[in-house]
Design goal:
single chain, 909 residues, alpha+beta, Nucleotidyltransferase, domain 5, 5-stranded antiparallel β-sheet, 4-stranded antiparallel β-sheet, 43 strands, 18% helix, elongated
Length: 909
């Protein structure tokens, strides 16, 4: 009746705004619908449109065919938006969420973006023959899936997992609907079942038709169904609609129609009794349940084929039909129709730009590169060289240094290598302490305090220099594990001077306190360093070289109060120190308080506007060499210039095999709590207040030869400080101590280090010390663990943590191998790293299996009674050594695999 001409989607170009449709001025009957447009879903292949769904968020219409293809159309003109292949089976249902487009086939659910990007696929043994799905009304990220099966699946879209599988009493589920109270489902027996919204349990069933239910819809308190009945053994459609009142769950008088409907949908625009019904032959009618039909149905042009799918837009202004020939028919009650009242904007591809400007061939001032090159249809251009004149070559990758290859670890076929300059752990209380120690360590050995730290050992229990020296000792061993900073952090926490400073917030206070403390501790060391405290600059600001600024900062006058030698009265004395020789390492504290405001002002000082001058550009090519560009006075600014221009300090470029290689000989190294890497000079000179403040500059003297690191040896007399009685060491300490290659079992007590015990191969304990407890309030966990050992150990029998640390370092220097049982994380605080081949917990473990505790292995392998709560530290060390010997005994006999299998079976039981 009110039919317009067909619109071919191939004639449209997807732009930011769709073109105006020529059929918008059509005549629409009052209160009815007229054909707005129709288009084939696929112009090349004919596939039946099996399902239609309007997008509830954007101006899109989604369609699926029996070839597994999903196609979307934009606006009332049905301009093709996206098309993608979802599966190789027919699309039975489409549900659109805010971010996903869900397409259901017989045994698979596929999720895609609106642009066709696949997100996930879902298949399960519970999904055998799916036909319908419905988004859960209360949980938007959950869908219900039903079909020709007795299982109703509730799927979570976020985790892609089944949250509930409901076994229904009905033999199948053909369609799903919902309202504010119930979830509705229909089956092939003619029943419409009301189900609970939360548990999806059956509550009530309505017998609507003798045979299958073709379609049904719910609006408010009304339920409308259409279906089939058996007549003389044939399945014939009922020429009426069954209506029900959901408040009383009773049927109302049926509504008779001139044809047998297979689709029925509510159109609650201004009345909840208004519906659209359609037959399989293409007859469509808009009716009111309170009135009898007064007009003839509209016949769709289906070319003698069947109508398969129907859907109503969320705005109730459009109705879409899909037929067996692959055409989509869009009806509307107005000329300017919209699918949603308040739709989200749709993302479109950037339209191609066409340049129609023609340049003259003799025009030399215009650049042809300003015209974009369009994509070639056959991937060939006029400028392409023939294949016989071309040689395909690939870029050679840069060789990986040997140092990185040696430190690389393979994990899941991926090699991981540590940054050689990031040598400390980042998980500590004061992360900037890592930065300070790392910057001091990476200077030449004889030009910084690293040598002083390595050669310094004293008897003080709280010595920061010793703790830093212990860390540098471990770094020289090139271990694969990063050293721990716990001992150094405890040293800060124990010092009363540190309590008066906010070390956790002010890096300047941390540096002042650290270097003043180190200056006192290293005052008698062979390699000391010059320390200059915080100074106030008392001269006016003028533009001056950097060297002059440093000189005046070092030679600044100082004023102190002292007694006068003549009048014996308190007087203020002014003095000036003259620096005659700079130290090999110069540290400059360049931190300020108002970072952003300061640098914003400095950037304004360097901002100048150019002169109002113009130079004539001449065509042609003029040859300039790199040397002339950098040395001629015409191109370089002199000292008398009015403005400061940026000129690169040096340019080092190497051409090798057609690859430009920039020299890696960079003199600046950046250390912070995240990275440690070399930087080019231009990046260093650029000061970014967002991430480079506060900062400290370290300058080192050039051309300093490398020297070998000299370590201060730890004497064996350190073991004479053993507080408890150890008869093993009373005769001759030098002869009874372990030698190189010996295996020592070590055990510890407490959540932190409270007691340390070491046992040699003969079962003799040569080290058993208790650590003096920490009285600081921040170490409550440590003190709580100490309370269990303080009942039988007097305070006079305690030793310091540093003394135990030095004893273990002596054994490490002698080449002793330590074995333990899963205590590697505690031993890291003592600078001891246990290799996997010396850890009994990892030795008695199969790949991807659980770990065994010590008491379980002792009871099953050694025949003893292992109880960690009653076994002391020495007993655990003895059992660790016995387990290590038992492992090698089983391995030599070839019984290790069978014993481990028996242990896991016993562990399960």
């Amino acid at each position: 009746m009110y039919e317009a001409s067909a619109v071919n989607s191939n004639e449209h170009v997807v732009l930011d705004l769709p073109p105006e449709n020529f059929n918008h001025n059509m005549a629409v009957p009052q209160g009815g619908f007229a054909l707005l447009s129709h288009t084939p879903q696929n112009a090349s292949l004919v596939h039946a449109v099996t399902f239609l769904a309007f997008d509830p968020f954007e101006e899109l219409l989604w369609s699926g065919n029996n070839g597994g293809r999903v196609v979307s159309f934009y606006g009332g003109d049905l301009v093709k938006y996206t098309a993608f292949l979802s599966a190789k089976a027919d699309i039975r249902h489409i549900t659109v969420t805010e971010t996903l487009v869900l397409s259901l086939t017989e045994q698979k659910l596929r999720a895609n973006r609106r642009q066709g990007i696949p997100i996930f696929s879902y298949s399960s043994e519970n999904l055998v023959n799916g036909t319908c799905m419905h988004q859960h009304p209360d949980v938007p990220n959950t869908v219900l899936i039903g079909g020709h099966q007795q299982k109703l699946i509730q799927l979570d879209l976020l985790t892609q997992k089944e949250t509930r599988v409901v076994h229904m009493k009905q033999r199948d589920c053909l369609a799903l609907r919902s309202n504010q109270k119930f979830i509705f489902s229909c089956d092939s027996a003619g029943n419409v079942t009301l189900q609970h919204k939360s548990t999806v349990d059956d509550l009530h069933a309505l017998q609507a038709h003798q045979n299958s239910v073709a379609d049904f819809d719910v609006c408010g308190n009304k339920l409308v169904t259409c279906g089939y009945s058996n007549r003389h053994g044939n399945l014939i459609g009922d020429r009426f609609l069954m209506t029900y009142d959901l408040r009383t769950l009773r049927s109302l008088p049926p509504y008779h129609l001139p044809f047998a409907p297979v689709f029925c949908r509510f159109l609650p625009t201004y009345s909840d009794s208004r519906l659209v019904v359609a037959s399989q032959a293409g007859e469509m009618m808009v009716i009111d349940l309170n009135q009898s039909p007064s007009h003839m149905p509209i016949q769709l042009d289906l070319n003698g084929l069947a109508l398969i799918s129907l859907d109503v837009s969320p705005s109730r202004q459009c109705i879409a039909f899909g037929d067996q020939s692959g055409f989509i028919h869009l009806f509307s009650d107005r000329a300017q129709a919209s699918f949603n009242e308040d739709a989200y904007p749709t993302d479109f591809a950037t339209p191609p730009q066409y340049y129609r400007e023609i340049m003259n061939f003799d025009e030399s001032s215009s650049a042809y590169s300003s015209i974009p090159l369009p994509f070639s249809t056959d991937d060939h251009y006029l400028s392409d060289w023939p294949e016989n004149l071309c040689v395909r070559c690939f870029r050679k990758p840069d060789p990986i240094p040997e140092q990185i290859l040696e430190s690389m670890k393979m994990l899941d076929f991926v090699g991981y290598a540590r940054n050689p300059r990031v040598t400390f752990k980042t998980h500590n209380i004061q992360p900037y302490s890592n930065v300070t120690a790392a910057s001091n360590r990476n200077f030449p050995a004889d030009a910084n305090v690293r040598t002083a730290f390595l050669q310094h050992i004293c008897d003080l229990s709280l010595c920061l220099s010793c703790e830093i020296g212990f860390i540098f000792r471990e770094l020289l061993k090139k271990s694969s594990l990063a050293p721990s900073f716990c001992a150094l952090e405890d040293g800060y926490r124990w010092m009363k001077e540190a309590e008066q400073m906010d070390l956790a917030k002010k890096t300047r206070s941390f540096l002042e306190f650290t270097f003043s403390r180190l200056h006192k501790e290293l005052g008698t060391s062979p390699s000391g360093f010059i320390l200059r405290g915080q100074m106030q600059l008392n001269f006016k600001w003028e533009r001056m070289p950097f060297c002059t600024l440093v000189e005046k900062a070092l030679n600044v006058p100082e004023q102190t109060d002292a007694l006068c030698a003549i009048c014996k009265k308190q007087a203020r004395i002014s003095s000036t120190q003259r620096i005659q020789l700079l130290p090999p390492v110069l540290m400059i504290d360049a931190m300020i308080n108002g970072e952003c405001s300061f640098w914003a002002t400095q950037l304004q000082v360097l901002l100048h506007l150019a002169y109002d001058s113009m130079k004539k550009f001449t065509s042609g090519v003029e040859s300039f060499s790199v040397k002339s560009l950098l040395t001629d006075n015409e191109y370089i600014c002199g000292e008398g210039a009015n403005h400061i221009h940026y000129v690169p300090s040096n340019m080092e470029i190497k051409i090798s095999d057609g690859i430009c290689q920039v020299s890696e000989a960079l003199n600046w190294v950046l250390f912070n709590e995240h990275i440690a890497k070399r930087l080019p000079e231009n990046e260093v000179l650029h000061m970014d207040a967002a991430w480079k403040l506060p900062f400290v500059l370290f300058y080192r003297q050039e051309n300093i030869p490398e020297v070998e690191n000299k370590l201060a040896s730890i004497p064996s007399s350190i073991f004479l400080t053993t507080s408890l009685f150890t008869p093993f060491l009373t005769n001759n300490i030098c002869e009874n101590l372990p030698k190189k290659g010996d295996i020592i079992a070590i055990a510890l007590d407490g959540p932190s280090v409270i007691r340390v015990s070491c046992v040699n191969g003969n079962g003799d304990c040569f080290l058993d010390d208790y650590v003096k407890p920490i009285t600081d309030d921040s170490s409550a966990q440590y003190s709580q663990g100490w309370s269990t050992a303080s009942n039988f150990v007097n305070e006079e029998h305690l030793t310091s943590f540093k003394t135990i640390h030095m004893k273990l370092l002596y054994l490490i220097d002698q080449g002793v191998n330590f074995i333990s049982h899963g205590e590697n994380h505690v031993l890291r605080t003592l600078s001891i790293s246990i290799q996997p081949e010396y850890d009994t917990m990892q030795l008695f473990q199969k790949p991807s299996k659980s770990l065994f505790p010590l008491d379980f292995l002792v009871s099953k392998l050694l025949g003893g009674v292992g109880d960690s709560s009653t076994m002391d530290c020495i007993g655990r060390a003895v059992n660790i050594y016995r387990l290590y010997k038992k492992y090698h005994e089983l391995k030599d006999k070839g019984e290790l695999n069978s014993v481990l299998t028996g242990l896991y079976e016993c562990w399960k039981n």
